[in-house]
Amino acid sequence: MPDTTTDLWFRVLNEVAIIDQLARALFEARLPSGFLVSHFSVLNHLIRVGDGRTPLELARAFQVPKTTMTHTLGGLERAHLVEMRPNPEDGRSKRVWITEEGRAFREEAIAGLGPDVARLAALVPEETMAALVPGLEALRRALDADRDRPGPP
Amino acid sequence: MPDTTTDLWFRVLNEVAIIDQLARALFEARLPSGFLVSHFSVLNHLIRVGDGRTPLELARAFQVPKTTMTHTLGGLERAHLVEMRPNPEDGRSKRVWITEEGRAFREEAIAGLGPDVARLAALVPEETMAALVPGLEALRRALDADRDRPGPP
DNA sequence: ACTATATAGTACGATATGATACTAAAGGCA
DNA sequence: TGCCTTTAGTATCATATCGTACTATATAGT
C-alpha cells in the first residue's frame, strides 16, 4: 500500500471533519438556545424511521454510547418533545415516542434552515452534492462494516 | 428551491456526520490512552504547515473556539509534545513548537493506523476516495465562506 | 426449575468542548 | 502623549460526551 493511499484517506477524512464541524455550528446557531444537533437528529430519525424505537436502537443508529443517548433523550423528555414509555415486550427496555410538540419543533427547525440551505445551494451546484452521495455511502458502509473487526488490539 | 434540495443537503451532511463519528472512534482507539484526535490533528497540522503557529491561528485552522485550542495545547504541553514560547513580535501572543517527542508521537500514530487504512482501502476503491475530494473541498469552501455571513439573526 | 450469562437502561465520575468575562498588549487617532 | 478600540490568551463555569459500574430483566444450558 503506497503512502499516497494513507494521504488520500487523511485528506478525505480531514475534509469530512471540517465540513461536519462547520455544518454543525451553523445548524446549532439556528436551533433554540439549549438544543443541540443531537436533539434534532433524534427527532428527525424518529420521524424518518418511525417512533417507538428503543434507546439502544437509537444509540446504535447514531453510533454513540448508550449513556450518551440516555442523556440526549433526557433533554428531549424534559422539553416534552418525546415521551418514554415501557416496552410491553421487554421489561428491561423502553420505547421512545415523539410528541406533537416534538414534531412541531422538528418542522420549525427545518423551516428555519431554509434560508441557510438556499444560500449554500447557491454556492454548490446540485450536481456536485448529488455526486457525493454514492461515494460517501460507500465510505460510511466500509467504516461501519469494519467496526466489527477490531483487528490488532 | 425544491424540497429535494434540502433533502439532498441533509443526506450529504448526515453521511458526513456518521463518517466523522466512525473514523474518529476508530482513530482514537489506536492512540495512547488519554490522547484524542484533536491532539493528533494539531501535531499533524504543525508538521504540515510548519510549527511556530500561534494558538489563535491553530484555532482558526480547526474552526474551534480559542478556549478549546488553549485546552488542547495544554494537554500537548503537559505531555511534552509541544512547547509554547513567547512571540517576540507580539507580546500578547505565543508560538507553538513541536518537540522531538511530538514528532515521534505523530509518526507512531500514523504507523499504527497502517493496518486500519489497509483494511479500509480494501473495502473502498482508491478511485472512489479520490473522486470525493473535489466535491468535499467545494462543500467545505462554501460552508467556510458562508460563515462570515450570519444572515437572518 | 435453576443457574449462569447476556442485555437494556441508568447513576456516577472524568474530561472535552464551548460561552462568557477578564487581563494584557497592540494599534489607531486625537 | 493619552485615550479608545481591537486582539491574544486564559480563567471560570456550564454542559455534552463517554467510560465504568450497577440494577433489573431476559435468555440459554443443564
UniProtKB/TrEMBL annotation, chains A, B:
- Which organism does this sequence originate in? Rubellimicrobium roseum
Read off the InterPro entries from this record. Answer: HTH_MarR-typ, MarR/SlyA-like, WH-like_DNA-bd_sf, WH_DNA-bd_sf
Name assigned to this protein: MarR family transcriptional regulator
Domain named HTH marR-type is located at 1-141
GO molecular function annotation? DNA-binding transcription factor activity
Top-level lineage group: Bacteria
What the entry lists under Pfam families is as follows: MarR_2
Q: Which PANTHER family match?
A: HTH-TYPE TRANSCRIPTIONAL REPRESSOR YETL (PTHR33164:SF43), TRANSCRIPTIONAL REGULATOR, MARR FAMILY (PTHR33164)
Swiss-Prot/TrEMBL GO biological process terms: response to stress
